[in-house]
Amino acid sequence: MTYEQSAAHRAFINQLNELREQAGSPALAHLRMLSRNPLPNGSKGRELAASTTQEILSGKRRRLPAWIWVASYVSACHQAAQEGNLDLGPMDLETWRTRLLHARRDDQPASASPGRSAVLPATAGPATMLSADHLTPEEVIQCYRDVHGRIAARLARTALDGDAEACFHLGLFTLLRGWGHDGMDWLRRAADAGHEAALGAVS
User: Fold this and answer.
1) Using only C-alpha atoms, what is the Rg of the chain?
2) 52 exposed, middle or buried (CB, 10 Å; 0-12, 13-18, 19+)?
3) Considering only 10-19, 63-72, 90-99, which range has the smallest mean pLDDT?
4) Once rounded to an integer, what is the mean pLDDT over residues 168-191?
5) Of 55, 79, 93, 116, which cross-links 60 as Cys (Cβ 3.0–4.6 Å)?
6) Quick one: average pLDDT of 156-175?
């Protein structure tokens, strides 16, 4: 199987580099220090090892970074900008997540494994932001694992199988974590399946 970086992959790496430049080009060691602070939602991010960050920003890695790394990097850049009295505007992690998912969608292996679905089936009904980027069920589950952990990943797997209770709980979970669009979409899916509590939440 061959694997080549797509134009979207390269564009995403360029956007990461541009953000650092706009933040005053902080040293990688400083970004590592700042990444030890909690993310805006209070959760723990990932410490940005200088060697890893250098490889990602230079485009030497064939795969895109995990979402938790991206969130930590963006947060650290915004903190560095604040220290230098630079205005980067509001930190919109949702936009960065969409950019990453778009790059992942286009950055697919040239030959997929047998039996691997190319896109989510229309009946799967995952959250709008995810389905719009044509991720496979496993990629949706991996996204939730990267961002929210194993519990959310297990809920996502069951919800994608059409379980109304899992859709309802995943909707509440993601709403509490700040994923408003995804949360409401999971609740709507639960309501469509007849979940009474979900019906009351979306009515």
Assistant:
1) 18
2) middle
3) 90-99
4) 82
5) 55
6) 87
Does this model's pTM top 0.70? no
Report DSSP state, residue 178. Answer: T
Binned at pLDDT 50, 70 and 90, residue 121 comes out as very low
CA dist 67 and 129 (Å) reads 14
The answer to whether residues 160 and 141 touch, using CB atoms and an 8 Å cutoff, is yes
Nearest to 193 by CA among 173, 165, 164: 164
Residue 128 has pLDDT above 80, yes or no: no
Question: In the chain, helix, strand, coil percent, each to 5?
Answer: 60, 0, 40
Count CA atoms within 13 Å of residue 203 on its CB side: 8
* Residue length of the chain: 203
Q: Which residues contact 183 (CB under 8 A, 6 or more apart)?
A: 127, 171, 172, 173, 174, 175, 176
